[in-house]
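WARN retry 2 of 3 for item q-0093 after timeout on previous attempt; input resubmitted unchanged.
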Amino acid sequence: MKKFKINDLEELHTFTKKNKELFNTYNCYAFKGEMGVGKTTLIQLLLKEFGIVNLQGSPTYAIINEYQNEKTNRLYYHLDCYRLKNDYEAFELGLEELFNEKTTIFIEWPEKVLQFLPPETRWITIQHKSDDTRTIEIDYEHGS
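OK item q-0093 returned
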């Protein structure tokens, strides 16, 4: 497990630049944390580092945003499963198939779709501390 302390938004930018390779494999990255802790912001900064220029914002209502790096044609997905009510909705969206593709997936609220996540999912936990700092923990061994 790797743990990072982030003091402000500028440090979050620096974190993504220095550590983008931790997130650049064909894998599922499950982001856990309370509402407003910075999951979407971190994912969008990572997508920018991977050459995505036309970010669509949080996929809270669409649930899935698909991005393609125009130079490499590599696909990235950003999922926000907060609004999913049950496994049936997740299945209807094709999440099971998506998780089996060779692509990079960033997912918020992964606890809503645990049964669909691949076993090699990497777990990122963001915690907001009382002094307005945040910690980011990256667990490569196992999920929650």
